[in-house]
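Thread: sanity check for a docking pose with flavin-adenine dinucleotide

Original post by kr_44:
Hi all, I'm comparing my docking run against an independent structure prediction. Below are the sequence and the ligand SMILES. Could someone generate the full complex and paste the structure tokens? I mainly care about where the ligand ends up relative to the chain.
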Amino acid sequence: MPEQIADRPAAALADSVLGPLWLDTSDRPAPRPALAGDVEADLLVVGGGFTGLWTAVRAVERDPGTRVVLIEADRIAEHATGRNGGFCEASLTHGEANGRSRWPEEYDDLHRLGIRNLDEIEQTIKRHGIDCGFTRGGVLAVATRPHEVEALEPGSEGLLDTAAVRRLVDSPTYLAGRYEADGCAVVDPARLAWGLAAVAERLGVVIAENTRLESLRGRGAHVEARTPAGTVRATNVALATNVFPGPLRRPRWSVVPVYDYVLATEPLTRDQLAAIRWDPAMGISDCGNQFHYYRITPDGRILWGGYDAIYHYGRSIRPEHEDRSETFETLARHFAETFPQLDGIRFTHRWAGVIDTSTRFCAFFGTAHGGRTAYATGFTGLGVGASRFAGDVMLDLLAGEPTERTRLEMVRKKSLPFPPEPVNWIGIQLTRWSMARADRTGRRNLWLRALDRFGLGFDS
Ligand SMILES: Cc1cc2nc3c(=O)[nH]c(=O)nc-3n(C[C@H](O)[C@H](O)[C@H](O)COP(=O)(O)OP(=O)(O)OC[C@H]3O[C@@H](n4cnc5c(N)ncnc54)[C@H](O)[C@@H]3O)c2cc1C
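Reply from moderator J.T.:
Ran it for you. Here is the predicted complex with flavin-adenine dinucleotide included:
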């Protein structure tokens, strides 16, 4: 009997390179020059991920002629935006269950706004011809443990039993599934980000890479942003810096950096793809607290991520955290159990990215400097689509006129901050331990039930 890949995850990973698949291409644009000298702007956007890029694009779409400068400390799409699974979901609330439980009165509006946001992302991509593999093929949620079938609401219409779900995608681990056709696309996120940057420039936005914001100060009718090479004097500032520590205290305390890990296989042959019967347009995730997400890339690989969500003491963010062999081997083993038909397949890429986890699992918003600065962060691993909505919210807040978006309780209400160390670290470890146990037993312990009661938690 051939040695099973499940027994030798290290071997399957042996030739993999440490680095995001999406950024490993000669099509990656050369970095734009850093800011040199002092400039004036109507709007300064800080951060060159999806949140910053959408904010810049929406600012000039909404009000052509606005002078927008975007600064990025590293390179466009260097962090979460160039490292994610590429699930572009309509949900603005990290899923329906989270949204309904927190904002039951307005959830239907949030759902409608989320679908509209996804439609408009699709229209923007089409209008500007951004070549990023955007395919709206829906998402399949699968249960792999008996107690997870409950999460798929077996009583309601549309549940796929074992045979039905395995006809869609053939894994011996699947017990049941539910397919949502409407609310999700898959995309090559780096190409989308590069495309948005090019669109922004065509519409007049100035982008400076390798330009770090060092400090921000309100100065009467302006905000002054210092960078190593010069000062930007802006009427308004939109902070889109994810979990990286920034100049404002509130967002700094309300997010923690959580590392999420991903693998990508070599491209599948036609026979391998046929053996698992998977329509490449459809993304998949399983239903555990520690869940996997996986999809087929435009060049026919399986991207396989999730499960472990690692927090380092003191909100530490360091490149060393990205290479965690035990997590990569766990992911490789789970992959082999899910698709034994693909025995022998090798992983070509392994990487990690840092997620802005908030206690409410979705973005929160705020302003500073008398309404001249706005921020959005806290997407908790579901910001590819929601970042565009967040950009519009920031622009609404900066404009100072109430809109349907800024009237939402979800937008007005702040996210509860995380406690200082060591309480934070202890709380997160206890939560992770409890969630792993709940995945095994199907029962939430006292700690998880207490967190549920206060609407708190930990997710990726
Ligand atoms: C491994 C992984 C998988 C994920 N999978 C999914 C998924 O499948 N679907 C989904 O919806 N979401 C997913 N996410 C989350 C998603 O990638 C993000 O929510 C989304 O990209 C929005 O990112 P952002 O622009 O807010 O942050 P980022 O992409 O991190 O961009 C913020 C930028 O700000 C810059 N910056 C920070 N500080 C400064 C400063 N002082 N000066 C200048 N620039 C600064 C940073 O360099 C960075 O480039 C995933 C995330 C990770 C890490």
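The CA atoms of residues 89 and 259 lie 20 Å apart. Hope that helps with the comparison, let us know if your pose agrees.
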